[in-house]
Specification:
The protein is of the alpha+beta class and 193 residues long. It has a single domain, classed as Alpha-Beta Plaits, CATH 3.30.70.1290. The chain is built from five helices and six strands; from the N terminus they run βββαααββαβα. The N terminus is likely disordered.
């Protein structure tokens, strides 16, 4: 296999991405209909009009809150589909990345991982999303887009950011009102196995 080199900062559309090789990354990817484009564009216009400082932070907070409300088809509520996503995340652990924390929510997925030397984040995300979308569409007896094209990623800056990110990921089902404690959510690294 030919070794891929880190891309650094790049963009495929709205969101900037950072592929820093073996840098720890917090990644969120979501279903195609979990956040309408018109809502996202409205927020961006509002921030530009109001000259909002910390635009990226505010946008991320709004997206997270919106996703937790369970908008869209929420195909990941189907246990069989959620198992496919879980199995895929775990399958690539130690092969393409070292998986640290993860959660499968009704309309999105969060995970924290460090890519392994030979794999860039574009390749990792493509393999996860391509495989799971084909399997999920088959289970759901549907065709068409399953995941949103863009995913959101943030590289981990320090130990405090690292621990807060794990806490955020594993507590997301509690925050969204889906369970009482993080260990109750079946599709998470916090679930006792």
């Amino acid at each position: 296999m030919e070794k891929s080199s880190p891309k650094g900062w790049y963009s495929r559309g709205y969101l900037p991405h950072f592929d820093g090789g073996e840098t720890l990354q917090f990644v969120t990817f979501r279903l195609f209909d979990s956040l309408p484009k018109s809502v996202l564009e409205g927020w961006i216009l509002e921030f530009e009009r109001n000259k909002t400082e910390d635009y990226d932070v505010e946008l991320r907070k709004r997206i997270e809150k919106f996703l937790d409300q369970g908008y869209g088809s929420c195909f990941l509520k189907n246990d069989e589909v959620a198992f496919i996503v879980e199995d895929t995340l775990l399958f690539h652990d130690k092969e393409k990345y070292n998986l640290i924390a993860w959660v499968v929510m009704p309309n999105h997925v969060h995970f924290l991982a460090r890519s392994l030397e030979d794999f860039g984040w574009s390749e990792i995300m493509h393999s996860i999303k391509s495989y799971t979308s084909k399997k999920a569409n088959k289970i759901l007896q549907r065709t068409g887009r399953f995941w949103q094209v863009e995913s959101f990623d943030r590289y981990i800056r320090n130990y405090e950011h690292f621990t807060k990110t794990i806490d955020y990921i594993e507590n997301n089902p509690v925050k969204a009102g889906l369970c009482a404690k993080k260990s109750d959510w079946r599709f998470s690294s916090a679930f006792p196995r």
